[in-house]
Amino acid sequence: MQDLTEPILELIRLAATDLPPDVEAALRRSLEQEEPGSAARGAMETILKNVKLSRANSTPICQDTGTPIFYVRYPEGWSTRKLRLQIEAAVVEATQKSYLRPNSVDSLSGKNSGNNLGGDYFPSVHFEEVEGDALTVDVMLKGGGCENVGAQYSLPYGRVGDSPLQAGRDLAGVRKVVLDAVHKAQGQGCAPGILGVAIGGDRGSSYLASKEVLFRPLEDTNPNPELAALEERLTGEANQLGIGPMGFGGATTVVGTKITSLNRLPASFFVSVSYMCWAYRRRRMTWADGAASYQ
Amino acid sequence: MRAVNIPISDDVIRSLTVGEPVALSGVMVTGRDTAHKWMVETFIKNTRQPQGDDLEVYQALKPLLAGGVIYHCGPVVAGLETQEYRFVAAGPTTSSREEPYQGDVMRHFNVKGVIGKGGMGKKTLAACQEAPGVYLHAIGGAASLIAQTVKRVLCVYKLDFGVPEAMWVIEVEDFPVVVTMDAHGSSQHAAIEEQSRAVLDELLAKA
Q1: What is the pTM of this model?
Q2: Shortest CA gap A244–chain B (Å)
Q3: Domain contains A28
Q4: What is the ipTM of this complex?
Q5: Looking at the DSSP assignment, which residues form a beta bridge with residue A198?
Q6: What total of structural domains would you count in chain A?
Q7: Strands of A67-74's sheet, edge to edge?
Q8: Do A101 and B76 touch (CB under 8 A)?
Q9: Is the peptide bond before B132 cis (omega within 30 degrees of 0)?
């Protein structure tokens, strides 16, 4: 079996230091919507300067390089045990090279492992066998600030008293709780953000799907017309909230919304919201014919 | 952008108001979750006995924090093996997690400025009025850019907390921030929270 440690190290470097073009383009549009001279515009200018600088110097866009999350799709014949070891080796080396911050902390002792390894869940690696000859590795780096403002609602959901937040088990209810999550997040998830929303599933699968949907390109359209309409509406309404970049107030709070749905139990109706910060770090490596290419 | 040097006098602090961009220069100390819990438990509430080098570090921190600035930041640091430390990426972390501790830390150490992102709550705003002090908002995620304003790492305390949680003493030049909570009781975060809640309630009332 081929050793993919070096190509995966390059994938991590790219993810941590080089913001994908679709995200950068969205941030540029966001800058243009903010008033000249406003704190929001200043924040967007700083953000875009930082994106450029990080790319030029190969330094992390954000110091919080998150939990490295990998999705490996492999053709028949690869060993997932060996691939996991190679991913771990690449993560350790990426930490030594300062592409990643040592982020893996023992929850009981508080001790940082120093190399971004720790237990079966750090880094987070998912495997799936696929048809064909090409192997792909997707990586996402999602920092703690935006992870902390993620939310899960069990519908029906209502705030007490005469609050207008009364969400039933339908898309209208989904819309309400997602707006509530964006309001609660304020600027703390590093707005302007991207919303990953999963409807249904169990608590675990729902949260997972709300992150997986964030691998979609920012500019695509949901194949389900109802969800496509809701995505567009939620992005527009989130921006009406006026929270703005960094919570400074402004026109752009969210630059995109991605929604997916999962089958659920008759008794459960979960809506999970993963808030992705503007530093939306995700990259793909494709390994075919013994060579790596990157997207 | 107004230039402000650390340590910061009370007069300068009182002259800063919400919305003003500031370029900070001087020496500041990073401190986040573990550091704040440690400071409060060991030296302020005294619910934990000092251990190891705690008292030594406390004595070293006091003059640095008096009139000084705490930065909520867990940096990426190069040179860990040679101890020739260099900040590679050093944006702010979310400050609200320090809300239970920050006011007490400001009063105890006479801290004048707190840098972070996302803003803080009522307890910290009250401490800003008393101290007087200010909350300074750095741009979240602008880590490479901010690291360039860190000219030198002078030393590090509590490295056993881990690289992100350690207390790094750094010298900065023209570190860019915006005042979002001032010594006069004004908070940009409270204002935006309230305005956006009114819009939210309108949106929720629609089908």
Answers
A1: 0.96
A2: 9
A3: no
A4: 0.95
A5: A260, A272
A6: 2
A7: A124-129, A67-74, A135-142, A281-288, A291-294
A8: yes
A9: yes
All domains of chain B in start order, with CATH: 2-205 (3.20.130.10)
What is the spatial distance between Cα A246 and Cα A235, in angstroms, rounded to a whole number?
A: 17
State the catalytic residues of B. Answer: 36
Of A57, A144, A164, the CB nearest to B144: A57
Are both A226 and A155 inside the same structural domain?
Answer: yes
Q: Do A279 and B141 touch (CB under 8 A)?
A: yes
Q: Cβ A60–B143 below 8 Å, yes or no?
A: yes
Question: Cβ contacts (< 8 Å) between B73 and chain A: which residues?
Answer: 63
Residues A150, A269 within the same domain: yes
Size of chain A, expressed as the number of residues it contains: 295
Examine residue A225 and say whether the peptide bond preceding it is cis (omega within 30 degrees of 0): no
- Which residue range is the domain that position A84 belongs to? 5-15+61-143+281-294
Chain A residues within 8 A of B93 when measuring between CB atoms: 64, 144-145
Question: Do the chains contact at B143 and A50, CB–CB below 8 Å?
Answer: yes
| pLDDT tens figures, A22-71 | 999 999 999 999 999 999 999 999 999 999 999 999 999 999 999 999 99
Q: Does residue A195 lie in a domain region?
A: yes
Does a structural domain hold residue A54? no
Nearest chain A residue to B21, by CA: A39
Task: Give, in degrees to the nearest 5, the angle at Cα A139 between A133 and A145.
Answer: 165
- A22 in a domain, yes or no? no
Q: What is the count of residue pairs from A and B with beta carbons less than 8 Å apart?
A: 175
A10 and A132 both lie in a single domain = yes
Interface of B with A in 43-72 (CB under 8 A): none
B143:A63 CB<8 A: yes
Nearest to B144 among A61, A102, A247 (CB): A61
Is the separation of the CB atoms in B132 and B14 below 8 Å? yes
| Domain at A106, CATH number | 3.30.1330
- pLDDT, tens digit (0-9, with 9 covering 90-100), for A82-137: 999 999 999 999 999 999 999 999 999 999 999 999 999 999 999 999 999 999 99
